[in-house]
Amino acid sequence: MTTTDPHPYALTATALGRRFGHKDTWALRDCSFHLPAGRVCAVVGPNGAGKSTLLALAAGLLPPSEGTLTTLGTAPAHARSRVGYVAQDKPLYPQLTVAQTLRMGADLNPARWDADIADRVATGQGLDPAKRIRSLSGGQRTRVALALALGKRPDLLLLDEPMADLDPLARHELMATLMSQAARHGTTIVMSSHVVAELEDSCDFLLLLGDGRVRLTGEIDDLLDAHARVQGPAETSPLAPHTIVESRVTGRQLTALIRREDPLPPDWHASRPTLEELVLAHLRNPASPPQPRHTPAEGAAA
Ligand SMILES: Nc1ncnc2c1ncn2[C@@H]1O[C@H](COP(=O)(O)OP(=O)(O)OP(=O)(O)O)[C@@H](O)[C@H]1O
Question: ABC transporter domain spans which residues (predicted)?
Fold first, then answer.
């Protein structure tokens, strides 16, 4: 938590819904969760799950159709000066140069602008600040968009698939910069991605969306502790009372990913899943029972 933000939650959603058009097409529906301040949160889910919609709502660019969302303890539109947002399509002014774009960022954020970090991120990998935005590659535009967002020195960074078009070196460099900024300033980062393995080392909080609803949310360590990959003899391994996310029988062997409800039988081999295994099991089994509703009293205290 930063000294300027005494609110314990970066985001709080209550029965949040967003519909597009007049038909009953809900991009998000009945979403409730709390994201404690200071966390690095992975937002994952299949295509069309509602990740970009949630980030745009949190940035105050879209109003909810129902329910409420607060950003840094206030209405998202009122939190904009403290929020950095990098949208999937990275909108920038094509006629400006990189240097002019950063100058615009400084002019728009005179009280908070951090020229050092903005210049360092924008000109990494030798990007020439005199180049026009329209002449940049997709990855170079991402670099400039991240520079603008970080230069704002935000309390909350909302990043919609920020790493998607970066080369491996740029990914490594920019992820390290994001993490060091988060650690140094207590910035909350909310980052959507399809590359779950990449999030495992950097994120400590998960928000898994499926079909516009929250499937799983909480501290990643708590979620991994609450689940188990189990193996046991198929005929003597009743999975009840555990919640089955995924199960498979091969010959006489049962393999399952469960949410533990009780101690496991001694003849079962149980191991802690990786984040990727947990997420993939939920994505492969969208009909598995969702997590009981997550409340701050269940371990999300800041
Ligand atoms: N402006 C819009 N008008 C109409 N429907 C929209 C609009 N934006 C999003 N949607 C719909 O809302 C749903 C959620 O879209 P969203 O872009 O939030 O998903 P996503 O999880 O970010 O997907 P992806 O992983 O493909 O980026 C989709 O069904 C999409 O078609």
Answer: 11-236
